[in-house]
Amino acid sequence: MANFATETERRPWLPLPPWARGTLVTLSSIAVTMLGLLFVTFLIGRVMPIDPVLAIVGERATEEQYNAAYRELGLDRSLAVQFFYYVSDVLRGDFGTSLLTARDVSSDIARVFPATFELATIGILFGCILGVPLGVIAAVRRGSWIDQIARVIALVGYSMPIFWLGLMGLLLFYGILGWVGGPGRQGIFYEDMIPSVTGMILIDSLIAGDWGAFRDAFSHIVLPASLLGYYSLAYISRMTRSFMLEQLSAEYITTARVKGMSEWAVIWSHAFRNIRVQLITVIALSYANLLEGSVLTEIIFAWPGIGSYITTALLSADMNAVLGGTVVVGLVFICLNIFSDLLYKVFDPRSK
Amino acid sequence: MSMTSQTPPSSGGQSLRQWLLSDTPTSRRQARLSALYQGWLALRQNHMAMVGLAILVVLISIALFAPLIAPHDPFVQDLANRLQPLGSEGHLLGTDSLGRDILSRLIYGARITLYIVALVALIAPVVGLLVGTISGYAGGWTDVILMRITDIFLAFPRLVLALAFVAALGAGIENAVLAISLTAWPPYARMARAETLTIRSSDYISAIRLQGAGPLRIIIKHIWPLCISSLIVRVTLDMAGIILAAAGLGFLGLGAQPPSPEWGAMISEGRRFILDHWWVATMPGLAIFAVSLAFNLLGDGLRDVLDPKDSAS
């Protein structure tokens, strides 16, 4: 993006004020990235060894039926035309029909997405609430035992396979200790008891005023969400620490200390205030990564979210569902990236 | 640096050591070896990096001598002795659901892990280096187009993209390697481009250009060598992620296929018995953890030595 900005600065080809040109450049680069994403999924769909026509008409179709379906799918047109139709379908929210569920992929995704959203959101909350203070303390008490512990926590987080950690968590907290609910989002007793409003069970059970269902849902979500959150904790605490170290070595901090300001005020109302923007961008990025990590976590915990949806579809060669899911996850990922970029530009006075 | 305070190496090495630490190298070879040696001395100070290196050396030897070390054939099934616990007769780490020795499977699995890591470490940085240096050196539209493509790949969630690629290409180790490489090269391209941009405008490049060197020669002989050190650090730090991605694909049944003793696939097999026979899934997980931890430790140490400006601590 920086690249584009310098290009336009050199030769202003549009008679627009700088802010409008900046917005235009940002918007166009978003559009190009999204188009690129669709192009990649389109290509993946085309090089598939599975014949999409056979998947519809079946093995015993006559040649006429096969040819009719072939034309129906638009496979006789050029790749460019096919891509154009693909993009316009996606823009209308049409990802085709899932072979597995025999429903629209978009309605399937709308059904499973809230589960992933709920999981990832609780996970990121966990990561922030523990990760930010840990990073701040590690920076302030640099080299102390708590700094070493923070370092180990982060290293282990970077090195542990998430699906294995999930299994171990399930073994310990469910199998041995019995502290949490098992796999799935709800116990059998509460299954389909709560009317779906938002699709997020924690919120739906609160709306219904059913405390038993809420406790049940919470006992199911707490383990996968905290394991998922552990990965963002590792990243967030490391980044918080290095941002804080940078601030704490600045001269204004020395000045504040010389003035006799309390250490608490120096840390929280001076240093921490100045890392807020950087921190939010980091959190947005790790939220995006959490979506990805949820694919493997969901499988371990039989969590009916988009990760389970994509992988189940994958194993039964349900290509519309795989590509639809990939596009949606990709779009959310891009949006979060752009959001963190924008946040930085809007709130950090230095970037103006 | 306090290199002179080091304990001297074993007998006869003293003169070699002095030659290596000489302030006035007399040949290019001496200068290069000296730089390498000093880097090694600095790395040796970092105990955690040494632990990482030790784990990796052990892993590589295990992979090399797998047939000699493994107590059993990793593929031979023994249904009479299935799901034996840890420390049972002849099976130190127990057996899996088909009665295969878990320790032997882990030992052979080290080969698969190293194979995947080595292939990705060859493909992704080279592609990234090519794209990045061409983009940075050529500038203009070439730069814009190549960087847009890089951005598109960067914008994808890596695991999901790898899943979609494997879905299209078919499951298997080679396709998993390809899928991981396809998602791993963009950061290298970004990095190589940034380095190229700084190097391109330096005086010595202008001097070489005035002497008549073509772009190809400049890129290969004068830009690539300077990009290598930061690339190596990045590759080492990425290795952990690559191992986790490969294990994840194996776990989903999209990487190495059974009966291959790939660690991720082993976890997936053991998953069904997790509550009653926990060791079947636990042992391969520990192996993955140890190896990716080793790469992270070594990568941190290498970063401190080669690239002190990026150091987080």
UniProtKB/TrEMBL annotation, chain A:
Primary localisation category: membrane
Protein name stated in the entry: Dipeptide transport system permease protein DppB
PROSITE patterns xrefs: ABC_TM1 (PS50928)
Family: Belongs to the binding-protein-dependent transport system permease family.
Parts of the chain that traverse the membrane: 21-44, 119-140, 152-177, 217-236, 279-303, 323-344
Record organism: Phaeobacter italicus
One cellular-component annotation, GO: plasma membrane
Highest taxon above the source species: Bacteria
